[in-house]
Amino acid sequence: MTATLTRQHAKTGEEVALIVAAYGELLAAARATFAAAALGEADPLIHLRHALAAHGQLPPDGARPVVLLAQSAVPLPSRRTGVA
Fold first, then answer.
1. Which range marks the domain in which residue 52 is found?
2. Full-model pTM
3. Which of 23, 35, 44, 68 is deepest in the core (most CB within 10 A)?
4. Cα 20 versus chain centre, distance
5. What is the pLDDT of residues 3-18, one digit of tens each?
6. In terms of domain of life, where is this protein from (predicted)?
7. Cβ–Cβ under 8 Å, residues 46 and 36
8. How far is the C-alpha of 59 from the C-alpha of 24, rounded, in Å?
């Protein structure tokens, strides 16, 4: 039982680490976007576009911002099944 709990704790820790890393990446992209806009760069959204695309989170063409904000569900990391 202790080994099972240890594996579950390790898996949870790995998931938290992945979420923290993804948050850090998104935050850095958002900050870079604001800095690029302030400098008048031609395409300041490139930073966010790249970060979202890397995680398959670009909105579909024609998506309405209000709908995307209302959905605000945080995508969870995929769970592997059958791991002992």
1. 2-71
2. 0.68
3. 44
4. 9
5. 665 677 677 888 889 9
6. Bacteria
7. yes
8. 20
